Amino acid sequence: MKAAVLSEVGGRLIVEDIPRPQPRAGEVLVRVAACGVCHTDLHVVKGEVNFPMPCVLGHEVSGTVEEVAPDVSTVRPGDPVVCGFIMPCGFCDYCARGRDELCTTFFAMNRLQGTLYDGESRLQRPDGSKLAMYSMGGLAEYAVVPATGVFAAPAGVALADACIIGCAMMTAYGAVKNQAQVQPRDTVAVVGAGGVGSNVIQMARAFGAGQIIAVDVKDDKLEAARGLGATHTVNAAQEDPVAGVAALTDGQGCGYRHRGSRASGDRAERLHDDPRRRAFGHYRRCPRHHRRGHRDHPAGAARYPGAGLLRQPRAHRLAGGHRHGGARPAQRLAAHHAALHPRPGG
Q1: Pairing state of beta strands 316-317 and 256-259?
Q2: What is the pLDDT of residues 207-225, one digit of tens each?
């Protein structure tokens, strides 16, 4: 099969012919229909996230089940499926508590070593040398995925579009529902209308937010954001985003703020010490907060892009994070899967 292989930090993805992988116990072989490109993949390419190389990236996968291990009964060959990027082991302490988004086995073995849970990768070059797997290594024609991370694709959605469900969309869902707990008529500001940000806009709309303000540096993204549910937009390259949000909210500010792309957020870095933040009221660190980032930018840092939008009584940092925003994908997607495939007599 063909796979896009990254051999070194800063290198190019080179399409290579490698052996088709085989699923082992508890695993599913998926014929990939589409694989999204996440910014986390770029972090690996740039060396901002340490990961073994050579490797195959890609963790937003949709496709069709090609083969299943004998002990797998949740899906069968021919099923259209989507895959969550966190592939829970199902046995660690967090999985046992229903917190599969924090699966210690996944982060210790897959995200640090590039293997599945027997300590081996399913990918290799023709000479037998190992290729690390970033999640399932979805930038390939086939991917082996633990059955705990494979779910029925939603009916009526093209597989090419469904691939983002397992990462960008689920991350946005977790951020809006679990972290910020957006309520009807709340005001939400989304800084960076990219992959996750555009889904945050849709989720905020679905949860009944009354005012959704998209902040970005590109007019085409802001125009697209309106089509997805943003009620107002602010171009941070052309105006002060804090002043813009203040004007749109009569000085009340926003209850929740999502920070997405660094390009948009950097425009707002200077706002941290801007005296005009008083228009948003007194700042306090709220108990419910969540932000995206990686090891160079730990969550909870006092200074970060767009901080000016949080200087207000009810400000919550609304972002997905690399762990689905606490969305518990195995539970949410499994519930959808069960609805589509009820058990006989159930």
Answers
A1: parallel
A2: 999 999 999 999 999 999 9
